Amino acid sequence: MPLDYDLLARQLDALLDTRDALTNMAQTCALIMQEVPDLNWAGFYVQREPQRLSLGPFQGKPACNPIPFDTGVCGAAARHRRTQRIDDVHAIADHIACDPESQAELVVPVVIDDTLWGVLDLDSPIRGRFRVHDQAGLEHVLDVFIRRSDLTVTL
Ligand code: SME
Predict the structure, then answer these.
(1) Could you point out which of 17, 26, 37, 125 has its C-alpha 20 to 30 Å from the C-alpha of 11?
(2) What is the dihedral of CA 2, 5, 11, 17, to 10 degrees?
(3) Is 76 within 8 Å of 53 (Cβ atoms)?
């Protein structure tokens, strides 16, 4: 049965009890890691210097930092401000392999006041793990994080 992302969004809404972005990033990626099957990494990268993503709260193995906007799947999401849903990361020439176990990746950008605030990055050890349903569902879950957090970009 496909995961009930509406339920997950409601769970996140109930979990977030502050508008603090750092706390909410930590809670959001922990809840996603706990509830979404077959993930080996879930976390945030945030734009704290122009055109560069810095590693934020995450669940999983230590990861690559920093990521310039011009490289990798996260960089593509930041540059194009569009979700990147990758079935096979090995088919992406400039994919940044933090963990060789990762096979599929979903990266959702967060844009605040027409500025790229950061991205949510999810990795899976299963090729083709992320379907259209997962993309739409996780974008919906991320909308809750955005609505419930004070997100400012100071570059
Ligand atoms: N694979 C990503 C890098 C981040 S890690 O997956 C945590 C990329 O190509 O941007």
Answers:
(1) 125
(2) 150
(3) no
**Amino acid residing at 100:** P
Please tell me the distance between residue 151's alpha carbon and the centre of ligand 1 in angstroms.
22
Distance (Å) from CA 79 to ligand 1 centroid: 14
CA dist., res. 87 & res. 97, Å (int): 14
Note whether residue 63 is domain-resident: yes
Mind listing the pLDDT tens digit for each residue in 2-14? 899 999 999 999 9
90: CATH: 3.30.450.40
Q: List all residues whose CB is within 6 A of at least one atom of ligand 1.
A: 41, 63-64, 67, 72-75, 95-96, 98, 102, 105, 121, 123
Q: Tens digit of pLDDT for each residue in 10-69?
A: 999 999 999 999 999 999 999 999 999 999 999 999 999 999 999 999 999 999 999 999
pTM higher than the cut 0.70 = yes
Range of the domain at 13: 5-148
Nearest CA to ligand 1 atom 7: 63
Atom of ligand 1 nearest to the CA of 71: 10
Quote the ligand 1 centre to 41 CA distance (angstroms). Answer: 10
